Amino acid sequence: MSTVDISALLYLVCAVLFIFSIRGLSSPETARQGNKIGIFGMALAAATTLFLIKDNLDGVTFGLIAGGVAIGGGVGAVLATRAPMTSMPQMVGMFNALGGLASLLVALAAFYAPASFGLIGENGVMGPRSLVEMSLSALIGAITFSGSVIAALKLNGSLPGGPVLLPLRHWLNLAIVAGLVALTVMLAVSPVAQAGNGYLLLAIAALALIAGITLVLPIGGADMPVVISMLNSYSGWAAAALGFTLSNFALIVVGAIVGASGAILSYIMCKAMNRSFISVIAGGFGGDDADTSARADNSDKPVKIGSADDAAFILKNASKVIIVPGYGMAVAQAQHALKEMADSLKEAGVDVSYAIHPVAGRMPGHMNVLLAEAQVPYDEIYEMDDINSSFKQADVAFVIGANDVTNPGAKDDPASPIYGMPVLEVWNAGTTMFIKRSLASGYAGVQNDLFYRENTMMLLDDAKKMVENIVKAL
User: Fold this and answer.
1) How far is CA 435 from CA 256, 327, 341, in A?
2) Locate the NADP transhydrogenase beta-like domain: which residues (predicted)?
């Protein structure tokens, strides 16, 4: 077999490994194994690429490749090791950004040194197909990069989490799309060699960078899980487009897998929030006006505030407790204390389970990861659709920092910005305990009427501190 045939076979093996990797990541029980398969697949893909170009490798080139892998891998390992679980969404956003930036830079490199990538045709210039594929890779990569950076800054609190509404933003985005299409067509049909029309690809990249900013800035915090999965999908499609440009089978297959899985996840997230994908792109829900009106309506309503001793008394006399974790638990790093509380209740004969909303936290699966870190048994964790009907049989719904996903306004207030969004119906339990620092609105900027219901007891404190006090009282 020739070198090309062997590399094609190895790339096929890599693609199969990546498919099994994503399959493993679909469940917390198999996620570790899925990660290991993915790591092995990526190592094999890198080794196959080196094998394919071994005849063109000299000492300097190999040293540059090895140095890049060592530096990038070292930085990534340090960041991943030091980053707390609460920063995982921001880290995922930045990883998406780096994936998009890599596609953009390789597309630019292929454009300015086409001979090195085998892209020169018989007439001495690149063909229209290569130019279109290159433009798509640069375009999608640039949007992914700038959009992911904005998303990460929003998640980190460096930018406002709510929608930042630009004047005439829809018209601005339409103009940018029209400009990108026009520039791509101009580049594809231009008979001038790349040295003469290089400004066109740079203009595409620059305009796409602006598009990433204008698309993500207006999206509110409640839609961030969708944005993260959407940008992850974009990074995959950018890699796939680059794979066509470079005739690299592994990039095409793996990029398509990542792009498709990210798109499917985005659809699942939108369905979980009763939102259309287009409405998410157009701008997030929740804003200052909605928040202000909600606060004014609830300013005079009575609030039942309890203590750790009150909560412990009710919990130990309950027969069924459903725990609903949210981002407040992540911020306080209260998952281990929560596990200790649940173990104490189970020892007393209380039936304890966990209810997870698909968009709880700042990214898909955020709560599942935190509970797994605290070694909560997988069979005690239920998705929203599987447990929502059980709240009617529960004595206590114990909400710890899950605000927007427990808001009854989504069910009974047509004027609410989140009306129609599927939520965890915690108010159907005998008593709803809600741990929160204050009565402020959630990340979506929408006030929660649950705070003022007769069967709700607000436990206003740091989540970890409150749970630890409840454990002591138990």
Assistant:
1) 42, 11, 14
2) 9-472
Q: Among 286, 310, 346, 45, which Cα is nearest to 160's? A: 286
Does an H or E element contain 272, and which?
helix 249-272
Q: What is the pLDDT of residues 147-168, one digit of tens each?
A: 999 988 888 878 876 677 778 8
Q: Which pLDDT does position 202 carry in this prediction?
A: 92
Distance CA 77, CA 64 (A): 20
| Helix or strand run (H / E) with residue 79 | helix 59-82
Q: Which residues of 105-124 are buried (b: 16+ CB within 10 A; e: fewer)?
A: ebbbebbeebeebebbeeee
Give the whole-angstrom CA distance, residue 269 versus residue 271.
Answer: 5
Q: What backbone phi and psi angles, to 5 degrees, belong to 397? A: -105, 115
How does residue 309 score in pLDDT terms, banded at 50, 70 and 90?
very high
Residue at 327: amino acid letter: Y
Rounded to an integer, what distance in angstroms lies between the CA atom of residue 80 and that of residue 468?
Answer: 28
Segment 194-223, tens digit of pLDDT: 545 778 889 999 999 999 999 888 887 667
d(CA 60, CA 399): 58
CA distances from 454 to 83, 393, 397, 473 (A): 40, 18, 14, 24
Domain boundaries, the chain: 1-82, 88-282, 300-473
Q: Which residues pair with 436 in a beta bridge?
A: 460
Superfamily of domain 300-473, CATH level 4: TPP-binding domain (3.40.50.1220)
CB of 194 closer than 8 Å to CB of 62: no
- Cβ–Cβ under 8 Å, residues 145 and 101: yes
Q: Specify the amino acid at residue 6.
A: I
Of 5, 351, 385, 404, the catalytic one is 404
| pLDDT value of position 171 | 87
What are the pLDDT digits (tens) for 352-394?
Answer: 999 999 878 777 778 888 898 888 998 899 999 899 999 999 9
* Residue 391 DSSP class: G
- Annotated active-site residue 343? The verdict is no
What distance in Å separates the CA atoms of residue 240 and residue 218, rounded to the nearest whole number?
A: 28
Residue 188 CB contacts under 8 Å (≥ 6 apart), including other chains: 128, 131, 132, 135
Tell me whether residue 196 is exposed, middle or buried, using C-beta atoms within 10 angstroms of its C-beta: 0 to 12, 13 to 18, 19 or more: exposed
Q: Rg of the chain's alpha carbons, rounded to an integer?
A: 25
